[in-house]
Specification:
five-stranded parallel β-sheet; globular
Length: 350
């Protein structure tokens, strides 16, 4: 065998030996892609009572199963079978008003009324009612009543219609808590989103049942490496999608969104009130935030239309995003993040 072939053989053997050692190390350390059983949201038919269910309780925040007899009874009456969700036993009960706002139905208006609208960030997905920023503001603002009319799943144009329903509550101030996925999307643009990881729900690592251990002959090293590579690809595509949502690829949808918000402000002002847009960041890489330009675009566009904007990015910059998540697979703001939002808004609303 020639010297060149010996060197090639030695290099191949060294590479193979290194890979085998790495495979052994991965197995000994128990390293593998992390998966979670799907978070579950259940609601009664009238949407007045619900529950968020999680598979584990690593933060120690969730209550074990359902400990609220009223919620159990209401869900049972709507034929919601909680026994089917034994793998997601950790619960956050939810109650909604006749207007589908979170909490109890308000009494007659007696003073200044602040109504918060928005999506699941405002509603407080995975957060107990008393820990939401709306409830904290209601406690802190002794001269005002704060109603939490955030509702998960509402983006424009549906959010506009939901906002108009809440005007029946006769608010003096409306706070629109905006997240970066709220803008209206053209059909073509919407089809580009893979929905494997939208920086809010890590769907890529969610499974329908407890994940089984892979067969012994399958490489754990390859599974880990391929998961990291796919994660980076999806992250890049998702980041680009968020940036494009307020740029040329979604020009029509973004223009419609600006019209919606300007019209909302005009409607509130016509009633003698004020609309505040509160721009919330996504809780991802807050040390080197990838969506700073998106915040700037939104802020500049709304302010050019005469809308008041409070950007809360500075409130969260430098924080460890993982410490602000409801759950590792559910990156909605947790109770600590809600407290920070309330602290930032209190002087504005006072």
């Amino acid at each position: 065998m020639s010297l060149g072939r010996k060197r090639a053989a030695l290099a191949a053997f060294s590479t193979l030996f290194t890979l085998l050692l790495a495979e052994l190390a991965v197995r000994v350390l128990g390293l593998a892609p992390t998966h979670w059983v799907h978070h579950v949201h259940l609601e009664s038919d009238d949407k007045r009572v619900g529950v968020d269910l999680y598979p584990d309780n690593t933060r120690g925040y969730f209550r074990q199963m359902i400990d609220d007899d009223e919620v159990i009874a209401h869900l049972a009456a709507a034929n919601v079978n909680l026994d089917r969700h034994a793998r997601t036993p950790h619960a956050v009960p939810l109650r909604y008003t006749e207007s589908l706002c979170r909490g109890s139905d308000p009494g007659p208006k007696q003073g200044r009324r602040i109504v918060i609208v928005g999506d699941s960030f405002a509603e407080g997905q995975g957060v107990y009612e008393e820990d939401t920023f709306a409830a904290r503001l209601d406690d802190a603002l002794t001269n005002a009543e704060v109603l939490n009319c955030g509702r998960r799943g509402y983006d424009f144009p549906d959010l506009r219609g939901f906002f108009e329903r809440q005007l029946a509550l006769d608010p003096d101030v409306v706070v629109y808590a905006m997240t970066l996925n709220d803008p209206q999307q053209s059909e073509a643009f919407h089809s580009q989103q893979e929905f494997l990881n939208d920086w809010i729900m890590d769907r890529r690592h969610m499974v329908d049942d407890a994940p089984a251990n892979p067969p012994w002959w399958k490489s754990r090293l390859w599974a880990l490496a391929s998961d990291r590579l796919e994660g980076r690809r999806v992250a890049d595509a998702t980041t680009r999608w968020y940036r494009d949502m307020v740029d040329t690829p979604n020009a029509a949808g973004w223009a419609a969104t600006q019209d919606h918000v300007a019209a909302m402000a005009a409607e509130v002002e016509a009633r003698g009130g004020t609309l505040h847009v509160v721009l919330l960041p996504l809780f991802v890489d807050l040390h080197d935030y990838p969506f700073r330009s998106v915040h700037e675009t939104i802020r500049n566009a709304f302010e050019a239309r005469g809308v008041t904007v409070h950007d809360l990015l500075a409130t969260f910059e430098g924080e460890d995003a993982r410490e602000l998540w409801v759950h590792p697979a559910d990156r909605h703001p947790n109770e600590r993040a809600h407290a920070m939002i309330a602290d930032a808004l209190e002087p504005v609303l006072r």
